[in-house]
Amino acid sequence: MREGKLVFWLLFAPFAAWIALLIVIPHIDMLILSLHEKVAPRVYETGFRNYADFAASWVYPWTLLRTVVFSIIATVLTFIIGFPVAYYIAKIAQGRTKAALFMLCLLPFWVSEIVRVFGWMLLLRETGLISNALQGLGITSGPVEFLYNDAAILIGLVYTSMLFMIVPLISTIDGMDDALVEAGYDLGGNGWTVLTRIVIPYAMPGIIAGSIVVFMLALGNYLTPTLLGGKSGQWFTAQIYSQFITRFNWELGSAFGFILLATSSALVWLLLRLSGQSLSNTLGR
After folding, report:
1. Residue 95: band (very low, low, confident or very high) from pLDDT cuts 50, 70, 90
2. Can you give the residue range of the structural domain that contains 171?
3. Single pTM value for the model
C-alpha cells in the first residue's frame, strides 16, 4: 500500500511542479501586482485602484464585452461547422477514408498559428485571391478589401480553433452505439428528431468540452484579432498587451488579466450549469 502511494506521488510530482511553477505561482504574483497602487515613483500601496480604473472608463468594459460576445459567436460557428464533420468522420467514413479525413483536419495545425493567419491575410487582402477571383468573374469592378473587419476576425478564430472542437466530438460520437440511431428511426423519428433527441444529448460532454476549449482560446487570442482585425479589432487581450508592453503599466495590465480570467471562469461555470454537465463528467467522458 505504501509502495503504491509512493509510486503515485513520484509520478504526480512532475505534474504538480509544472502546475505550481508555471500556473499557480505566476498567477499569485500577478494578483499581488494587480493590487499595487503607484502613489509615487517606486512607491506603492495596496488597494483596488487598478480595478476601479477598469470600471471608471467605458472603453475597457466595452472592449471586454465585445471580446466575450465575439468569442461566443466564434464558438457557436465552430460547433455548427465542426459537428457535421465530426459526425461524418466518426460514424460514416470507414477505413482509410476515416483516417485520411482526420489527417486533413490535422494538417493545418502542423504549422504555427502566425503562418495560418498570414495565409488568410493573403487570401482576404484587396490584392488577394478572393478579390482577384471576384474581379475576374465580373462580380466586382475593382479590388475589395476583406481584411480589418469583424468578419475577418471570426473567420480566423473559427479556423484556428476548429480542431479543438472536432477532436472531442469525434471521440464522443465514435463511442455511440449505432443501434441507438436505428432505434430512433424504427420508433418513427425523422432525422431532426434523432439528431436533437439522441445524437446531440449523447455527444453533449464532447460538445461542452470542445466549446470550453474553443471559447477560452478565442477569448485569450491576441494574434488573430490583431492581424485580421487591425486597429478596429478592439480585442481585450490587445488592451492587456498595451498596458504591459506599450505603457509599461504592469499593475493595470495584471488587473486586466485577472478580470479576463474571472470573466472566462464565470462564463464556463455558467455553461456547465445551463447544460447540466459537471467539469469532471465533461473531461472524463
Report:
1. confident
2. 44-284
3. 0.88
Does residue 186 have a pLDDT over 70?
yes
Rounded (10°) angle between helices 250-275 and 59-87:
40
Nearest to 171 by CA among 282, 67, 77, 73: 282
Q: How far, in Å, are 77, 108, 162, 166, 275 from residue 156 at the CA level? A: 12, 13, 10, 16, 27
CATH number at 230 reads 1.10.3720.10
Cα separation values, 35 from 74, 139, 216, 253, 256, Å: 33, 56, 25, 11, 11
C-alpha cell recorded at residue 150: 469583424
* Among candidate residues 84, 116, 88, the one with its CA nearest the CA of residue 101: 88
Domain count, the chain: 1
* Long-range contact set of residues 186-190: C-beta below 8 Å, sequence gap at least 24: none
Return all residues near 136 (Cβ < 8 A) that are at least 6 apart: none
Q: By the 8 A CB rule, do 216 and 279 touch?
A: no
Answer yes or no: are the C-beta atoms of 228 and 153 closer than 8 Å.
Answer: yes
- Nearest one of 111, 87, 114, 115 to 101, comparing CA atoms: 87
Picking from 120, 145, 121, the residue whose alpha carbon sits closest to that of residue 135 is: 145
Q: Which residue has the cell 457557436?
A: 76
166 found inside a domain: yes
Can you tell me the distance from the alpha carbon of 70 to that of 282, in angstroms, rounded to the nearest whole number? Answer: 24
Region 211-235: mean pLDDT is 89
DSSP state at residue 228:
H
**What are the two backbone dihedrals, phi and then psi, of residue 38, each rounded to the nearest 5 degrees?**
-80, 115
